[in-house]
User: Fold Large ribosomal subunit protein bL28 from Holdemanella porci.
Amino acid sequence: MSRVCAVSGKGPLSGNKRSHSMRASRRKWNVNLQKVRVVVDGKPQTIRVSARTLKTLKKQNAI
Assistant:
């Protein structure tokens, strides 16, 4: 399973990890995915949604 939000399509970002001496090595920031049960077309389904998207959906009363 890939770490991608089912609603917004957000995926992991990459960049550099910096040590105290500023040496760079690659690292990855994963998306904060949560499993949520949502009613889609009258049937409950479990989808993986990012926490930011979940907050927005709750604000809009979509969930």
